[in-house]
Specification:
Blueprint lengths: L1 H18 L4 E6 L2 E5 L1 H9 L5 E2 L4 H16 L2 H9 L9 H8 L4 H12 L10 H19 L7 E8 L7 E8 L8 E4 L20 H19 L10 E4 L1
Parallel strand pairs: 6-7
Antiparallel strand pairs: 1-2, 1-3, 4-5, 5-7
Helix pairs in contact: 6-8, 7-8
Length: 242
Amino acid sequence: MKFTLLSAAAAAIAFASSEHDGKRLIRLSANHSEWLTDEQVEDLALRDIGFLDDTDGEWTRVFELGAARQAQKSTLHGRALQETSPYPAVATHEKVVRGVTAKIQTADLKRTLESFVNKFVNRLYNSTEGAQSCGWIYDQVAELASSVVANTNVKVTVRQFTHEWGQYSVIARVEPTTVVKDDIIILSAHQDSINWKDRPEERNIAPGADDDGSGTVTILESLKYLLATPEWTPIRPVEFHW
């Protein structure tokens, strides 16, 4: 049954795409979507008009999930869950946090960011340099993972998650030696960058220092500092995504 439903969904998406001549279903608000060409979508970006690409229906499912969660909160069961799972009143890991923050050096962040953004003309997701940029991140993370000596409480693995375009995602998984919780925490930042103003986009200068080089470097350095802190003992897997 599950396979049948997935096949039907894929067929519906393919049919919708062909029916609308390759246009994308763009959600402009919670209740309004339009089928637009790539040029029209680029025009929205140039005019700084926010939108969501809902061609594959992912955002529709997100909105439906959000509505379902809101509805659940209003039930007796939902209210009971909130009452039995209150937010902590005081910090419980202050010593570890202070130990990590004591290691942070602004100069390190700046040096890593400058090295990252100056290596590539841009980091467009389907460009040659976009593919090279994720390779740079992978090498940095793999080096961190191979040099984990300060913290024996965790095991680190790094892998590439490929996409249909040239740029892959990098996933570093920090696995505690003793797993207490069966959920997972994910810290992520997109590392691609694009210059929408000029054409062709592939050769446009787009260092993306703040969008999102700063986020990319922040979680990279966070991983470095956490792994250098022996007191850090996570109770669930933690993943870093680029």
